[in-house]
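Project outcomes to date are best conveyed with an example. Our students and postdoctoral researchers have been running inverse folding experiments weekly, and each run begins with a structure described purely in tokens. The record below, which covers 165 residues, was selected by the lab manager from last quarter's runs and is presented without edits.
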């Protein structure tokens, strides 16, 4: 049987599909205490049915995450959005600063000499390479700030980590 005719295979998702519930859905907001009770009941059921397995620990971590969200101590979407905006502005500032540094080095080089030899261009090439390397490192870390904030709430979650912690 080919994978395309397998009835148990999930249907392909359309490109424009959003994971958010529709705006008319009554599940836009969930009752935090009801979610906590359900997760705690599931933890208890798994622990009593499979005492030798550690699957119940995953439910305990879900209960902990629900408690964190209910307490409001987690990273809010607004703060992540603000961090994303500020990191993008910082990336723009880094790019403008480094571009300006290369432009100033080029102006300085061409203003000093009428005739340029190949060795006269070496300081400019060094400046360009240094700016590209250090600017790339700065942009890489600035891009990752919002992602790190989103994952920060799960810093204690070890059940989902792909490697032992």
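After processing, the design step wrote out the following sequence:
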């Amino acid at each position: 049987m080919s994978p395309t005719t397998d009835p148990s295979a999930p249907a392909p998702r359309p490109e424009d599909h959003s994971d958010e519930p529709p705006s008319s859905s009554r599940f836009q907001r969930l009752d935090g205490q009801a979610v906590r009770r359900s997760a705690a009941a599931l933890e208890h059921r798994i622990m009593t049915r499979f005492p030798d397995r550690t699957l119940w620990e995953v439910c305990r971590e879900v209960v902990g995450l629900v408690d964190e969200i209910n307490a409001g101590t987690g990273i809010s979407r607004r703060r992540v959005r603000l961090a994303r905006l500020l990191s993008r502005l910082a990336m723009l500032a880094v790019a403008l600063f480094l571009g300006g540094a290369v432009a100033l080095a080029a102006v300085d080089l061409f203003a000093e000499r009428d005739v340029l030899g190949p060795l006269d261009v070496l300081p400019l090439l060094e400046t360009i390479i240094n700016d590209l390397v250090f600017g790339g490192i700065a942009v890489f870390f600035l891009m990752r700030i919002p992602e790190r904030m989103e994952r920060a709430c799960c810093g204690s979650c070890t059940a989902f980590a792909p490697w032992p912690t």
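The chain has a mean pLDDT of 78. Residues 12 and 18 are 13 Å apart (CA to CA). The training component of this project remains on track.
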